[in-house]
Amino acid sequence: MRHSYERVAILIGCIGFCCSGCVRPPEPAPLDAQDQSRFRALSVQTLREAAFGDDPVLRMQAMEAIQEVAPADAASCIAENVDNGYAGVSFAALMALGDLRRSTAESSARLAVANQNRLLQRVRTLAEDRDPNVRIASLYALHAMGDATRTKELADFLLRNADARVRANAALAVGRLRDPSSVPLLHQALKREKKDAVKMQILEALASLGDSHGIERLKFYGFSAVPDQAALALMCLANARTIEAEEMFRIRLRDTDYPEIRLQAARGLGRLGFEDGLETAVRDLFFDRPRRNIANDPPQQQIARIRALAALALEAIGNPTALGPLWNAFNEPGQSPYVRLAIARAALRLIDARTPDAVRPAGFESHRAPTNRIAGTNVQD
Questions:
Q1: Residue 335 needs a FRET pair 20 to 30 A away by CA distance; which of 110, 183, 191, 261 works?
Q2: DSSP letters along 2-36, please?
Q3: Is residue 87 part of a domain?
Q4: What is the pLDDT of residue 377?
Q5: Alpha-carbon distance 277 to 269, whole Å?
Q6: Of residues 46, 97, 53, 77, the one with CA closest to residue 311
Q7: 298 within domain boundaries
C-alpha cells in the first residue's frame, strides 16, 4: 500500500547554494482581508477537488488535510471515501475519521448529524476487508467511535503480520490511540522488529506517549550521517511534538545542506511554538535548484518535495506573514498539485488560526514525500 500517500524520492543538495533559487523569494507579508477570503475559498476548493478527484495519492493527502484544517467539510469527504475501492484512500479516510472523532465535541456532533449509525456499520464491515491496512484503520476508527471491542487486534497486526507496511501502520494506529498502557506492547514490537522504517514508526508512537527511550533513540537518529534517516527521525519527533528535541531541531536547522533535514527541523520547532525556521521555510517554498542525475529522484520530484515540505513547515510555524509567499507560490504557473495541496492546508491553518491537534497524519511515511506522511511508504519486505 504505499499507496503512495505522500511520498516520493530522495535528496537534494547543491552544497553552498542548493536552495537559493534563481528568483528571490518574496519577503514574508500578510494578506489583506479580501485576498485572505479569496485564498481561503480557493484552498477549500483545492482540498475538496483533491478529495473527490481521480488521483488516489492526492485523495489520500486530502483526507488528512481536510480533517485537520477544514473540519466543516470533512464529514462528507470522509464518508464518501471510506469504502471507495482503493485501499490507500480507504486507509487515509478511516484514519481521518478516527482523528476527527477524537479531536473535538464539535466534530463529533457533525458526524452524528451525518448519520453516524449507518457510518458505524460501514466501518464495521470494513474491519473485515481483505486488505489488512484497511482493517487496521477500521479498528482505529471504531475505537474512536466508541466501539473498542476489537481494538486489541491491533497488537496482532503489530507483532505478527509478515508485511512490514502492515506492521508500520499498526504502530501508527496504536500510537494514535494515545493510551499509555500501549507502551509495553510497543517496546515488545521494537525488540522484535527487523525493518528500520517500521522501527521508526514504533519509535514515533513511543515518543508521542512521552516514552524517554523512544525519544532518545529518535534524537540519536536525528544526528545520523545518513540524510534520509536523519530527516525521517526529525519528522517523527516533530509529529510527536517532543519538547526534548527542541535543541536538536535548532542545531539541525542550521548545520545541514540538506533541505529535507532543515525543513523537518523548522516544522518541529514550529510545532513547539517557535518561529526560527520561518525564513528558511519561505525560501524553500520557492526551491528550484535540484541535484541532477540522482537515481530515482528526478529534478521535478525534488522540487515538489521540498516546496511541499516548506509549506508544511510554514503551517506548523503559524505566522500569518507567511500568507503572502504562500499565495504567490500557490499561483505559480505549473506548480505541482501536491505542492498546491500542501499550500492550501497551510493557508487554511493560518487564515483560520487553528491550533494543530496532537494527532498527526495518516499512514506511514518517508520524508521523501510531496507532503508529510504516507500509508505504508517506502517500507519494503
A1: 261
A2: -TTTT--------TTTTT--SSPPPPP-PPPHHHH
A3: yes
A4: 38
A5: 7
A6: 46
A7: yes
